[in-house]
Design goal:
This protein has 263 residues and is of the alpha/beta class. 35% of the residues lie in helices and 16% in strands. The two termini are 23 Å apart.
Amino acid sequence: MAQQDERTGRARVVVVAGPSGSGKSRLAARLHGRFGWPVVRLDDFYRDGDEPDLPRSPLGLPDWDDPRSWDGAGALAALRALVEDGWAQVPTYDIAASARVGSHVQRCGRDDLVIAEGLFAAELIEPLRRSGLLHSAYCVGRGRWTTFLRRLSRDLREHRKPPLVLLRRGLALARREPAIVAAIVARGARPMSPTAAERELAARRSASLPHERRVAGRPRSSLLVGDPLEPSADGPEGGREGSRGDVGQVGVKSDEKAGNSSP
């Protein structure tokens, strides 16, 4: 996992990758709630379902498990703007409609870590590393059959696709999960449970506090409102569940896109 000097006063991106239903969005929500870090739901960068050049499954349906169904360049540009400018315009995507339904402004503080989570998050690890924006990358998971049950429960609850489609897709993803995880790890993510990832990020944040107070020469209470985090210790410094609207502009949306169409 790439880690850079976090003490230069710029935000950095924490990539949270993993199979569909592995707990990415839940981890991002906990980190936002605990530290105030902005969350970018990368699944909001899916392309609209009516675009004629979408990749297709053998059944002729859009293949939402194919990275070509996703606007990676747009996601990378938004993360770069968020880190470098402190704000970015990001889309709002409706899974059930397979379409973008709006957009909103996402903001981050000077020293925030930006949590970027989604099915294709691993696609951004190397571009972020080359740009000097990568703080760390995780591949979270809980075991393929736990993931299968949680994913199926979520997708049925949200009526993402007909139940039989969800069951068949879920079983196929469970069979492929070891290969999916191996591919994500090969891109530079570290495999661990969501709880372990949260614990590690919290420890790194805690270790950085004395240094930040010393360098900044000001008490923690003097930090900007909405900027609750000093950068962590060994990287650069430190921005979608179901249909949008559950956590407003923070972007805690569904784990991934669903059905044939979902992470």
